[in-house]
Amino acid sequence: MSFPPIHRVVTGHDAEGNAVVASEGAPPKVVEIESIPGTLFQEIWATGATPAVVDNGEDPTLGDLQLSPPASGTRIRIVDIPPDSEEFLARGAEAMDAAFSQIGEVEASTVKSDSPHPLMHRTETVDYGILLEGELVLVLDRGVVTLKPGSVVVQRGTNHAWANRSGKPCRIAFILVDGRYDPALAEALEAR
């Protein structure tokens, strides 16, 4: 299955303050995760502050690929996820370390020998995941949820993985918001 290309439209303002199209076309930053062939990160936009600076600044997606948003910022990306393969599942932690190294956050990996999936990870963010096409399984420490197109996940800094058990690729949009753990929750997570 092949998905339609992403069409990104970025607006801005001309010198007189009129709304204009600043850029239009495919996202300029599209990266395949080398250790998980077929996994494609398509970077759409990022903000570096809250409130976000509204300007005609440079495209924030052109730097190094980063999993989490900037401090006090946001990030939106679309991810194409291939079906889990026996080879990938067997490589487990090795594939996970390589993947998270490529996306700049190896410390996000929480994989252990008894983890329910080799891509278990956690970030100190609130993430909105919107399944666009295909089927995906949200794997948590305790429990799984099967997602279909139109499913929306509000991921609140929990340990999780995305498993594609459908045999077909899927596409999901993620909006990530920088966050901070509540002190009591941070203490509980440290104790684990």
UniProtKB/TrEMBL annotation:
Chain ranges of the Cupin type-2 domain: 119-175
Q: Which Pfam families match?
A: Cupin_2
Listed Gene3D superfamilies: 2.20.70.150, Jelly Rolls
- Its name, as the record gives it, is Cupin domain-containing protein
